[in-house]
User: What shape does this take?
Amino acid sequence: MDRPLVITEDHDLLDDLLRVAAAAGAELDVAHVPVHARPYWGRAPLVVVGGDVADALAATGPPPRARVFLVTHASGDPDMWRKCVAVGAQAVLELPAAERQLVDEFADAVEPPAKPGTVVCVAGGRGGAGASVLATSLALTASRQRLRSLLIDADPLGGGLDVLLGQEESDGARWSDLVAREGRVSFTALQAALPTFAGLTVLSFHRGEVEPIPAEAMRSVLEAGRRGFDLVVVDLPRHPDQAAVEALGRATTTLLVVTADVRGVLAAAQVLTGLRRHTGEVRAVVRGGVLDEDVVTGSLGVPYAGSVPDQPRLATALNRGDIPPIGRRTSLGRFCGSFLDTLLGPGD
Assistant: This one.
């Protein structure tokens, strides 16, 4: 794969460009002399020209092309716009002010545009409703259908989805390693940093005291997830915080897990009020109980997504730390497969 091209003799500028490219997960081809850039000029997905070599580059008569930027440390130098026109660049980027824009440009260059992944949020109508199990099962089912799947734990008090999968000791980044991130995150770097098991990439919390996820960090992770994964499943807290609001705003649909009893419906109605402020579509997944599904959905005023009965074998497996047994023949597996087929189209 062709790499972005940087043309500069300024070592300080080059150091900054290498750092910015690393933040975007990009490797660069570097030409210190404009004539050395000729073999790369036409095929590089992005060209960054240092202001120090712009006139020398223009003198070589490079053919016109898209996605050329002139980069400089000089702030407010009007001569840079003359140089920008001379080399056929589309903009002048002044560092450090334009670093975030340049990260985005490098990331776009190494991550070709793709159909954005689908985001599904899952919330429990009350504690113990089974939202985390459903979120995990959806993501696992998708990965078994050879869909690139990312499972995000957005509930700081949920106990950890890696624990649910029996993988709390696995190597890889947790939210504590990502909370300071702002701006664009490369999905390749994100996937490489996070633990992956059973074909599923997981972002969960570390053990010990947990702090809320900043909205900026959740936004960066979700955008990287949508660029690099077919499906992103987010396990939400019952009371949406800023991070949950970011996820709800990007969700194609949100599943609300409701236990089919009076208290379960009343509690779910309270949760639903918070969800509806931030997302468009909410559907109910009904856990077996004394009330009929149509009574539950009619009381809440939401569409019916399906029902999932209690599964004693599932609870036993989870307490042992086993990966949830959600084969196609189980009721949970059937629901997840059917739901994903409806949402994304039939899988393998």
Remarks:
- The domain at 118-344 is CATH 3.40.50.300 (Rossmann fold).
- The chain has 14 helices and 13 strands.
- The chain has a mean pLDDT of 90.
